[in-house]
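Bench notes, afternoon.
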Amino acid sequence: MYQVLRNILFLLEAEKAHYFSMNLLKALCSFPPIRLFLTWWFEVKNTNPTLQLFGLTFKNPIGLGAGFDKNASYLNELETLGFGFVEIGTVTPIAQSGNEKPRLFRLPTDKALINRMGFNNDGVQVIKQRLELYNKRPKKGNVGSHRMIIGGNIGKNKVTPNEEAWRDYEICFNELFDVVDYFVVNVSSPNTPGLRALQEKDALLEILQKLQNNNHTRPLPKPLLLKIAPDLTKEQLEDIAYICKEVKLDGLVSSNTTIDRSSLSGDGQSKAIEIGAGGLSGKPLKKRSDEVLEELIRLTNGEIPVMASGGVFTKKDFQDKIAKGASLVQVWTGFIYEGPGIVKKILAP
């Protein structure tokens, strides 16, 4: 059934289709009987035990990566679809509109997307208020005793110079501390000019050390993770492993979108040239993201938990990530192509 709906949605511009479909789901879930039915329908029916990681209880290991619900606008609806965790953001201190539209593009032949959104979001204060409301809401129509975990993906504003970037990350960290369960530092998006330069060793150490120092002044520190690009060299990955140990990071998210187009089909590469700049996600990213995952596990001796993403569409894709050492798995593009039942399909016995 979703294949028919997808064909209709794909007639719309990608970003418009995203908001149309999520707003439709939100409208449906505003009726308690429908929400209860959808929660039951998308419930994972197996009896696998819950997962303990970072001192948190995940009802299942499938999450939705950052960038899908940038503004924490659809958390109730995403919980209805069975996700174990959702990462909101990327959040910046000040609201920003992002890059010029159109900025999200489909490559259906390759089951891929290209985006150059540019950290469009409503700003940390507005998003904080939404998270406060979400955390206070009555638990209506939710199946299971464990709630959905919320991660806060934080970044810098486009106008903030890199030498002052740490201030933006700290503002978001302070404001969201009481309303999210874990943090992810995003320095790996290709769509904010100069951002990926912050993945270099010295710049990254400054940001993460300041955040971790702040974190450890709190009675109950929050898990702090770093999201990296799949385009890093072997030497850069070695630096990441060193930083993880030096700063005592709780985990990594591997990986963000790629600027490499070599894994696309001929048709996909032609379309990518027409589209221009942006980060590539989906099926073509799987091979490289798996390679980076394996290398990170090797470099850290498997001592740093990794949330793996990149090309996860099926149960086998999920199992591949777990077999290579991932502790949790995120979907994004797979959700667009496979539909709202993706969690249930992946985790079904």
